[in-house]
Design brief:
alpha/beta, eight-stranded mixed sheet, 8 strands, about 20% strand, globular, hydrolase activity
Length: about 260
């Protein structure tokens, strides 16, 4: 078991271990965060464009601090597993290069495999949600669409899913409870597009959609070029409350309404 790295902090006795998820063409390396008590419903945390950055590790620790078991797969493993911190001078062009080279369909399949793997962990009680940021928000939405059985998440949280403008009119609407966050001042996703995304995704079952005034793209990322402190705080608080209602951390609190597919 790894010791507490400098990349993240927790107020409780959260632990992190290195894991490997087997898929037909290889092995996905991942980080597994367990809450202090050792048991808690599962969340697969889907990385942003920069990979498993310190920010993503911290958000995983934040969720584990609250009682969830969090799996963070390295979805760039097929192309070298690069991780960028976002504040490096060439981080954005390098991240865009990684994004362009990473196979979309295979990555969606990887996320579903991670859901099934985490669901099989007896310490998560058979329940797994997805939570994704930016690029990961779009991937998480795609992985939740038109899927059944153990690979189907029980709930979805998507932060400013960057692929949603191209996805929502092409794939079936997600049919698991979902929460979506967008900034109203997003320079990459115009607010008119956000409004269209809202119109489409709310056709699904049990959907909540929040847009945050003054917040740009990646507003939850702590880097100064992205961060909007008020939107980040308010959205994260809303995410916790929503998860507690739709995907409670205790493994004996299984929502009676769970439906796959």
């Amino acid at each position: 078991m790894s010791t507490l790295p400098r990349a993240w902090e927790a107020t409780t006795a959260v632990t992190m271990t290195d894991e490997n998820i087997e898929v037909p063409d290889g092995t996905i390396p991942a980080k597994l965060f367990r809450p202090e008590g050792g048991t808690g419903a599962g969340i697969v945390l889907v990385q942003e464009i920069f990979g498993i950055s310190n920010y993503i590790l911290q958000r995983a620790a934040d969720l584990a601090d609250k009682g969830w078991t969090v799996l963070v797969p390295n979805l760039y493993w097929r192309i070298g597993g690069d991780v960028l911190q976002g504040d490096e001078p060439d981080a954005m062009p390098r991240a865009m290069d990684l994004l362009g080279r990473n196979p979309w369909d295979d990555t969606v399949a990887d996320i579903r495999a991670c859901i099934a793997s985490l669901r099989a962990d007896e310490k998560v009680g058979g329940r797994v949600a997805l939570l994704g940021f930016c690029h990961g928000g779009g991937l998480a939405y795609a992985a939740s669409s038109d899927v059944e059985g153990d690979e189907c998440p029980d709930a979805l949280v998507s932060y400013y899913g960057s692929a949603l403008p191209d996805l929502v009119d092409k794939i079936p609407v997600v049919d698991v409870p979902s929460l979506h966050h967008f900034g109203e001042a997003d320079k990459y996703i115009p607010f008119s597009t956000v409004q269209h995304i809202h119109e489409v995704v709310t056709r699904g079952r049990d959907v909540e959609f929040s847009s945050w005034p003054g917040a740009g793209h990646a507003f939850d990322n702590p880097l100064p070029i992205f961060h909007h402190a008020q939107a980040s705080e308010d959205a994260w608080r809303e995410t916790y409350v929503w998860l507690l209602e739709h995907h409670p951390d205790e493994i004996d609190r299984v929502p009676a309404s769970r439906t796959l597919g």
